[in-house]
Amino acid sequence: MVLHILLALIMFVRMITSAKSLSLSRIGGYSRWSRPEALSHLQPANSRFSWTKPLYRVTRYHQSLLCLAFNSNESDSTATRQKRGKSTKASKPEAIATISEEMAHEELIRLNHEINFHDALYYTDEEEVREDSESGAISDRAYDKLVQRAELLAGKFDNLRPLVEKFERVGYKRSNKFAPFTHTQSMLSLDNAFTSMDLRDFVSRCYTKLGEVPDEEALPDAIVMEPKIDGLSLALHYREGRLVGAGTRGDGIVGEDVTTNARLIADLPHELPKKGSYEVRGEVYISKVDFAALNDERKSRNETAFSTARNAAAGGLRQLDTNLLKSRNLRFFAYSLFMLGEEGNTSSAVFDQSEALDTLRSLGFRTAAPIRKGVTFVEVVEHCIKMEALRSSLEYETDGVVLKIDSLSKQEAIGQ
């Protein structure tokens, strides 16, 4: 027992002191942050942990899901678009403990403007000129610092929270170029957590929700650990085994109907071997090799290179010109499986997560490797450290590891 606790402590220290330290991101559920006071310990300037850009945000947290996010290898520039005339050097912000409500009000208005600007770049780029390296796009880590600062200010002055539109927003507005696509269930977002202590907090909360006594070594259930792909979320609908619909996240409730474009993704099945009605969710991305080739080709035509593979993938999927779409070589990884209702726009989960992944593969979908299952806290930490070490060798861009309680019954007991 003592040996196990000692091992866990050693791994915990390793994770904190690693030169490529990890940060945590809790997956958003159906209501907004209800514990702003939990952010007060995140202020130390020497903290090695960063925030992860939210993928979706709704109203209450999925209590059975968590994401451990890697620090970005990009610079911590806080630059915005050059044409806006902003300086790339940010002044030191006022400490949360001493800032006045008036100063916080002024700063939150500025932060709201900047966050909205970068969300527009991240979610809704439609013109290639907005995706190039001079667009003012900042690193994930720099973006996360903006959101973290806004969370801290809103945590101290809760009455100022409405000043930040992002706290009430799911994803971003959909493009009018495409017909609406209504989701069967909200497509949820990654919300932000901060240090390795949140992993312990996550485990403790799961035990509490299950009405069980916490165990220092074991987890409340096996945890499936999947790479977090840096791409664009996509929902696919199959009726009688045939692809009948595909939609982007949009605002999390209604997305863009990109069924025609989705059919042009080479590794996305048009027809399944089983004639059931399914909803498959996953990530559209561009591989590192294809992204490099795409930028080389653009440079050969004296065109500006894309800044990120994620933006190139998002812009590609939303192209009206199918030839341009095909040139992006989009790919798809599946990560969630639901059964579609026979009538109406409804769906339900029926599989444990590990079973869902096995079923997806049997249906012809690719899932992101490596995927592992852990049953102890130490196993989870060890795998995440290994994943960060493997990061540069993977064929896709990844910015973290998503942890999912495996058992569907326990997911439902823990709640959303």
Helix and strand arrangement:
Elements: H1 2-17, E1 22-26, E2 65-70, H2 101-124, H3 140-156, E3 180-182, H4 197-210, E4 218-229, E5 232-239, E6 242-248, E7 254-256, H5 259-262, E8 278-285, H6 288-300, H7 309-317, H8 322-327, E9 331-340, E10 347-348, H9 353-362, E11 372-376, H10 377-390, E12 398-405, H11 408-414
Antiparallel strand pairs: 1-2, 2-12, 3-7, 4-11, 4-12, 5-6, 5-8, 8-9, 9-10
Helix pairs in contact: 1-10, 2-3, 2-7
Residue fraction in strands: 15-25%
Largest sheet: 5 strands, antiparallel
Helicity range: 25-40%
String of helices and strands: HEEHHEHEEEEHEHHHEEHEHEH
SS element count, helices = 11
Average pLDDT for all residues: 76
Low-confidence sequence ranges: 1-61, 73-89, 125-135
Overall, the morphology is globular
Q: What structural class do the secondary elements suggest? A: alpha+beta
Straight-line distance between termini: 33 Å
If you compute it from the alpha carbons, what radius of gyration comes out, rounded to the nearest whole angstrom? 21 Å
Q: How many beta-strand segments?
A: 12
Order of strands, widest sheet? 1-2-12-4-11
Protein described:
- By secondary structure, the protein is an alpha+beta fold.
- It is built from 11 helices and 12 strands.
- The chain has a 5-stranded antiparallel sheet. Strands 6-5-8-9-10 form a 5-stranded antiparallel sheet.
- A hairpin with a 2-residue loop joins strand 5 and strand 6 (242-248).
- The radius of gyration is 21 Å and the shape is globular.
- The relative contact order is 0.17.
